[in-house]
Amino acid sequence: MRIAIDAMGGDHAPDATVEGALLAAKEWSDVDIVLVGDEERIRALMPAGAKPANVSVRHASDVIAADDEPVKAVRRKKDASMVVAGRLIREGEADAMISAGNTGALMTTALLVVGRIDGIERPALAPMLPTMDGSGVLALDLGANMDATPEQLLQYAIMGSIYRNKVHGLPKPRVGLLNVGTEAMKGNELTKAAYPLLEQAPIHFVGNVESRDVLHGNCDVLVCDGFVGNIMLKAMEGTVGAIFSALKTEFTRSFMSKLAAAVLKPGLSAFKKKMDYGEHGAAPLLGIDGLVLKSHGSSDANAIKNAVRQARIALANRLVEAISTETSRKREG
């Protein structure tokens, strides 16, 4: 399997992306990694003898910046690292791509360069959210599309269920619909119309889920539109950040509190790791006719390595083919 990495995308690129790619290449010899970007800068980060045989470099002379307008950037910057990585998938030179760059531009690259699976109306950004039991919940869509139709939520549910089965090995993933209450007729017009579609779908639908229960792991796949989902995601990130900031202030307030911090540090470190996005690596763009993964903009080397692990599992279990087959079956039915 061949995985292209946008070496120039992300807050810590290319240093973190190259380091993460090298770690992954050493860990999994069955993966060929193509680092796409400024060849001179990339090779400078790989001292003589440090490049594994399963790592290569594809030069790309341009970069899509975080503040670039997505569609214009993808159309005009034909030799940007992200766009070149997308072309590698389209032309059969790579099976997957990973980028920590501009989310909107990656979505545009996926749509305009790689292309959608036939029958999928809109791809969905599907990151893993942490849960208290450590198993996580796949949430989609969390920002690729601000609006959605009931039929699109149905597609999100089916794709999410397939992903958790193929990548995480869950035989019967529990699918929930994000809502303001658990009763079947609660919500706005979108969720009311989507509910019966999900009930009839070939998935294990467990009904409506309130946002306060998400961290308790009462479902394996959480379905919502991108507007609501992104607000929930940012609220969670802000809350976790505020909690750890407040704890740091309290634990450094006095000598006694510092002693208490020393005692509690192992438990707090474990909890922080459980809440860390980097442990999951990347969010797939489900519905694209090729495996496209979005890493967090501030990804470090470990997050990039985990993204490669995630891509490797998805490719081994033929995720894209499974979604395409299910979509075809639904159209024919």
UniProtKB/TrEMBL annotation:
Q: What is its main location?
A: cytoplasm
Gene Ontology cellular-component terms for this entry are:
cytoplasm
Its pathway, per UniProt, is:
Lipid metabolism; phospholipid metabolism
Q: Which UniProt keywords apply?
A: Acyltransferase, Cytoplasm, Lipid biosynthesis, Lipid metabolism, Phospholipid biosynthesis, Phospholipid metabolism, Transferase
Alphabetical list of InterPro entries matching this protein:
FA_synthesis (IPR003664), Phospholipid_synth_PlsX-like (IPR012281)
Has UniProt tagged this entry with the keyword Transferase?
yes
Q: According to the lineage, what is the superkingdom?
A: Bacteria
EC assignment: the record states 2.3.1.274
Q: Which Pfam families match?
A: FA_synthesis
Biological process, per Gene Ontology = fatty acid biosynthetic process; phospholipid biosynthetic process
Q: Which Gene Ontology molecular function entries are recorded, alphabetically?
A: phosphate:acyl-[acyl carrier protein] acyltransferase activity
Instruction: List localization entries.
Output: Cytoplasm
The record's SUPFAM superfamilies line, in alphabetical order, gives:
Isocitrate/Isopropylmalate dehydrogenase-like (SSF53659)
Q: Provide the reaction this enzyme catalyses.
A: a fatty acyl-[ACP] + phosphate = an acyl phosphate + holo-[ACP]
Xref: NCBIfam families:
plsX
The UniProt similarity line reads: Belongs to the PlsX family.
* Quaternary organization: Homodimer. Probably interacts with PlsY.
- Function field: Catalyzes the reversible formation of acyl-phosphate (acyl-PO(4)) from acyl-[acyl-carrier-protein] (acyl-ACP). This enzyme utilizes acyl-ACP as fatty acyl donor, but not acyl-CoA.
Q: Which HAMAP family match?
A: PlsX
UniProt protein name: Phosphate acyltransferase
